[in-house]
Amino acid sequence: MTYKTLKINQETLTALMLIEAKKEGWNYSKEDVDFYYHCSGNHIYAVENDGRIIGCIILHERSNLFQKMSIYSVGLFLVNREYRGLGVGSYLFNVILTEYVPKDSLVFLNAVPLLTSFYARHGFFDTNIQNKHYSLRQGDYIHSSVVDMAQVDYPHSVKLSDVTAENLKAFMNKIFSENTFFIELLLEWVCREDAKLVIAHVSEMVVGYGVATICHRNAAFGTIQYRIAPLYADNEDIAEFLLRKLLVDIFTNNTQEVELNTPQEVNVRFVDGLKSFGFITSQESNTALMATQNCAVKKVDEVYSLMSLEFPHEYGMRKYLS
After folding, report:
1. pLDDT score for 64
2. What is the per-residue pLDDT for 159?
């Protein structure tokens, strides 16, 4: 077989994300397609055989350097089922890493358990960072855990309201001080048309925020599925406060399910809070952070729910040790 790589249009990306990815249990929405296609720094490549698109990958490029290295991330690495075992994935991966990524760059990705050995063969190292996937179905949602926000007994100085983008950016800068391009990506993410944004602040200072976006629509039943990504907060009380508010907003719609990904080492109280709402976790859906440099990284304390897994930049930048 003869393969070649090419950039794809939004129509082709739509078919890959909404049809082919769904076969793997990966949930995406038309809003996701629009964001990924137009997102600054995204380069979307496909592999073609005899005029047919049989796989794709997203390469996300950061404009700033870290320790003189360019930073990239890889996501949506997909090969059509009938072409697996034929070297398509290795071909696409090798082309991307050798032709489109400068030598000695630092590349991150989130790997499902079944693919960690594949990435290791292509020069990736396990950072020993694990991410846990949680989901909450509408029928399992424990409503009694969510009370009217006016009755929540949290510090009175923490309240929800609109704040300027500059205040939000200042909070992100505090968390990701050397990761300026990731901050620009986060600001693009919160401006999605489907985004439900909740911000907590003391006076004019942001102390946490959370975002929910649509990751799947079931046209037959008229239901939708949300992801909470990201959720950042100064402490677990604020994180739970934001989570409560987001769940109230989400389940007022025709929502079937909510999902999120947490760092494995996230605060135990926050995990207990997830369970109290009815969230469950699945080992098969967990991911491992891998990188092309043998680096030591650790979680950032303010991260309670991760950004969409195609953009694994919450680790490693400020915490890169080797």
Report:
1. 59
2. 44
Domains and CATH numbers, the chain: 4-129 (3.40.630.30), 132-292+299-305 (3.40.630.30)
Confidence (pLDDT) at 149: 42
Q: Which two tokens stand for residue 115?
A: 């693919």
The ranges of the chain with pLDDT < 50 are: 145-160, 317-322
Both tokens of residue 184? 């620009």
Q: Which two tokens stand for residue 39?
A: 């997102």
Q: Angle formed by the axes of helices 236-250 and 268-277, to 10°?
A: 20
Question: Tokens 């399910």 map to which residue?
Answer: 257
**DSSP states of 115-145 as a string?**
GHHHHHHTT-EEEEEEEEEEEEEGGG--GGG
CB 99 within 8 A of CB 211: no
SS3 letters across 215-249: EEEECCCCEEEEEEEEEEECCHHHHHHHHHHHHHH
**Strand residue runs (E) in the chain:** 4-7, 42-49, 52-66, 69-79, 106-111, 125-137, 159-160, 196-202, 205-218, 223-233, 255-263, 280-281, 287-291, 303-305
| C-beta separation of 136 from 278 below 8 A | yes
What is the Cα–Cα distance from 14 to 189, expressed in whole angstroms?
Answer: 19
Distance CA 36, CA 43 (A): 9
Type of residue numbered 143: H
CA distances from 212 to 112, 116, 142, 191 (A): 23, 28, 19, 11
Query: d(Cα 289, Cα 116) in Å, to the nearest integer?
Result: 9
pLDDT of 42 reads 92
